[in-house]
Amino acid sequence: MDWKERVIQTNCGSIKGLQAEGQEKYLGIRYATAGRWEYPIEVTQWDGVYDATCFKDACMQMRALREEDKNAFYYKEFRQGETYHYSEDCFYLNIWKPADCVKAPVIFYIHGGAFQGGCGNEKHFDGKKYAERGIIFVTCNYRLGPFGFCSLPELAARDGYTGNYGLFDQLTAFEWVRHNIESFGGDPSNITLMGQSAGAMSIQQLCVSPLAKDHIARAIMTSGGGISDAFGTYIPAEQAYPFWKDVTAKLGGSLEDWVKADAKVLLATMLETAKQYENAIEYFSPVLDGRLICCDAQSVLRDKRQAKIPYIMGSTKDDMETDILAKMAREWTVLQSQQGMSPSYCFWFGRNLPGDDQGAWHSSELWYTIGMLENSWRPMTEWDYEISNRFLSYFANFAATGDPNG
User: pTM surpassing 0.70?
Assistant: First the structure.
């Protein structure tokens, strides 16, 4: 496409994006500010014309510590040939939209990566296929690892609660979109949350949280949505304190020391300390903080705490924890019917991707559900494009009406 600059007015001020062939995109929009282990503050104004013509920084993560293995599966799949920049200051979102749209449905996408990696502009994250179908597509970056999921008593004493900084980033990005998307031609009352793996797990929490659930129109969750005692359960923040005390003890004697520690040193220290703990990942994942995540799985099921909205849930044939994730998706969908909630839908992705013998692996559906098969190294066939077009139609219909059927 031959992209040309375009300037529009938003509630925050003027913003410069790019336009071509009936589409526009606005990249690297700052949605919040925050220091280390501070809860995000939504951006409401900027000076001059904001330059949104290129992607901005992803959150500091393991990839920033050392060069990725060029033979690693997910590197070859989603990042080969790409360049990324990393920082704790990663509060940016990206918007792809139909040109001159009015009250368009919106999909707000949260990326996966085990709460430790990823960003909103890898090869498969491009919203142009949804823009072609009249949908505004948004991705965001959020804090990961020690920057997004540290829990410390000193922070709880200071703020009243601790942990889940990355989830609060997602919530703030969602709030920024609600408050500003009308300037881009979107409908703030019709925003569908969509995500995969850790992104789906995040959406599950937002759909239960009193801070978010009343503002979500619909939700699409793949390979992480639903409730299970065996997957996606979270410990109270207090149970993570000993781990984080071990980490910070190596960085100095006070909260001020820990906040000032070099970001790469903090990340490396967390990873090294994790080797001494069994199931360490539960200490740098979401926790029950009493603010955003207020209840366990059983109380959700018993008290109907979830947003009363339509859901699409799904998983893949060769997924991580294949049987558990498929069961979670099915049971969550059925639960909505049993509890008299909105009609909801379930899918199962079984396409063995061409090019190797890995089958329908965890995250394989992303090429199809976002539609960027042209960015893949794989020898995609006419059938692959047909599958992707079906997905895009189903999800676009769902975002517009709550029903995937056409």
Answer: yes
